[in-house]
Amino acid sequence: MSERSPLYRQWPLVQLLSASRYGVTLREMADQMGVNPKTIRRDLRAFAELGFPLDVEIGPRGRKTWRIAAPHQPPLCFTFDEAFALYLGRQFLEPLAGTLFWQSAQSAFKKIHSLLNPSALDYLERLAPQVCSTRVGASDYSKKAELIDRLMQAIEDRRVAFLTYQSMQATEPTTYDVHPYGLAYHRGSLYLIGHSVDHDQIRHWKVDRIEEVRVDPYPFPWPDDFDLQSHLRGSFGIYHGQGDVGVTIRFSATVARYVRESRWHESQRLTPQPDGTLLAEFRLTGTEEIKHWILSFGRHAEALSPPSLRQELAGELDAARHHYARPPRRPDKPSPKEPTR
Fold first, then answer.
1. How many whole angstroms separate alpha carbon 7 and alpha carbon 9?
2. Sign of CA dihedral 99, 5, 184, 173
3. Residue 262: other Cβ atoms inside 10 A
4. DSSP secondary structure letter of residue 233
5. 21, 223, 262, 333: most buried, per Cβ within 10 A?
6. Cα 298 to Cα 258: distance, rounded to the nearest angstrom
7. 97 lies in the same domain as 61
8. What is the dihedral angle through the alpha carbons of 16, 21, 26, 31, rounded to the nearest 10 degrees?
9. pLDDT tens across 224-236, in order?
10. Could you give the CA distance from residue 302 to residue 320 in angstroms, rounded to a whole number?
11. Is residue 254 part of a domain?
């Protein structure tokens, strides 16, 4: 029997049933999906309970076939502006490459393209370059389809996963015994969130650095009090601390408007000052990620609290100043020892 998760098994089955004009037998479905016929029966019952328009026909010699019938309603239609917006939006789905829905998304966009007349296509091609998505630093998962498949399987079936992971600091990969809880997408990359058995705490692993995944046949107990969204609520992105920290930052008038334009965190409180500066207050579980965000503003941002964050930032800035206080070294020379912070 296949070890694929219900979602990853059922999605291709839906595609098979939808594409079949004359229906598919139970044995044909089982062979196509690589599972036991009993598994297919359970999937078909699930589809029926969900209200899928399943057609069942009994042919000569009792041959039984299934298919998903065309909806009993007018064909799905879009106005030009709707089709145009959806078609242009395909670039924002590129991070899905290598995941379950990429192929279906591509197929949908091709259908939209085929429905547009020549003049509309010409208009589309002329306007398309005016909308683009930057992908600076975005991850490429086109070669990690099977690995992401196994992660999804472990998450959905609540199975223990053994990760071979190469962290940024380690010289050799390490194997972790993990109870996987879910995936988070942050700044162009996927992160696995789960309980590390070895460390007895919830940790995050960047999918790019996962070299191998082995899914154990045994399930793990799901914690009743865990919720993925709640877990990330105190993070300034993806890095999660264990504390409760109040962070206050003063932004110069030069960048105050830029900061006000966005929602950076649900706890944010932005208070314009009479001199044009801006005070930003956050409530977080840790300061690692917001530290790098503050540094990105250079001299236009000053952390006022907590004192520990000010000290860390001062150390980072002092180290950076040290690099620029001397002539640049030749690439073939070793790096000098950094100053002690």
1. 5
2. negative
3. 8
4. T
5. 223
6. 14
7. no
8. -50
9. 888 888 888 889 9
10. 16
11. yes
